[in-house]
Each structure stands twice: as structure tokens, then as C-alpha cells.
Design goal:
The chain has one domain. A three-stranded antiparallel sheet has the order 1-2-3, covered by helices on one side. The longest helix is centred in the last third of the chain and has 60 residues. 1% of the residues are buried. The protein is 61% helix and 19% strand. The chain is α+β, with helices and mostly antiparallel strands and 131 residues long. The protein is rod-shaped and about 110 Å long. The two termini are 39 Å apart. The structure holds zinc ion. The site of zinc ion has 6 residues, from loops.
Length: 131
């Protein structure tokens, strides 16, 4: 039991350290867009349109923004968004770990309480047999 708690504490510690390190995570999402140019007879009127164009949608502290990205920036944005996904996956793992720790500690406490009750009972029985 103690070993399992210790293992989870170690993993929790590493996770929190990694989460704190991940400063350069990107808030936002990458949106793929196709445009229509408005020229009469252009194929974009029928099909999916010109593009794709990549737009980075960011929202931080209540301010939203859209930025069009060139090809080089798209790769960068994908990398950052991948980091964000990994960050969120670590956060989810941390929640699971915390819940496991609480469950383990509760079970540990219950087993101790059970032993304590047994101990008290045997003390009382010994007491009674003396009387
Ligand atoms: Zn067009």
C-alpha cells in the first residue's frame, strides 16, 4: 500500500514539474479555411473554394484574435498545438493520479481503523476474562 502511494506520488511530482516547465504552450486552435474570391465564373463558387488558408484563432484573457499563417508558421503552430495536447493529456493523468491517491489513502485509513477496532475488542475481551 505504502509502495503504491509512493509510486503515485513520484509520478505526480514528475507530472507537475513537466506541467510547470511547459511555458511555451499555445492557447488557440488552428483553423483551415477555403475562400471565395467573388470573380464571376470562378471555380471557387462551385467547389470548396481557394485555399486552404490556415488561421490561428487565439483567445487569452478575454481577447480573441485571428491570424493568417504562412506555410512556415503552420508547421510551427502544429508543433505548439501538439504540445498543448500533450499538456492536456498530462493534466488528465494528474487528475486520475490524484483520485487514485485519495482512494488508496482512504482504503489505508479504513484498514487501520479495522485493525484499531480489532485491537480495542481484544483488549476489552482480555479485560473481561480477568474479571
Ligand atoms: Zn475564385
Amino acid at each position: 500500500m505504502r509502495e503504491r502511494v509512493r509510486a503515485r506520488l513520484a509520478e505526480q511530482h514528475d507530472l507537475v514539474r513537466d506541467l510547470l516547465r511547459e511555458q511555451a504552450q499555445l492557447q488557440g486552435s488552428l483553423i483551415r479555411r477555403f475562400g471565395r474570391c467573388g470573380k464571376a465564373g470562378c471555380a471557387c463558387r462551385e467547389g470548396r473554394g481557394h485555399g486552404p488558408y490556415y488561421v490561428l484563432s487565439t483567445r487569452s484573457a478575454g481577447t480573441g484574435g485571428f491570424t493568417y499563417l504562412d506555410a512556415a508558421r503552420v508547421a510551427q503552430a502544429r508543433e505548439l498545438l501538439g504540445r498543448k495536447r500533450r499538456y492536456q493529456a498530462r493534466l488528465r493523468r494528474l487528475r486520475v493520479l490524484n483520485a487514485e491517491l485519495v482512494r488508496l489513502l482512504r482504503r489505508y485509513q479504513q484498514s487501520l481503523a479495522g485493525q484499531g477496532a480489532k485491537h480495542v475488542r481484544s483488549l476489552l475481551e482480555r479485560q473481561e476474562s480477568k474479571n
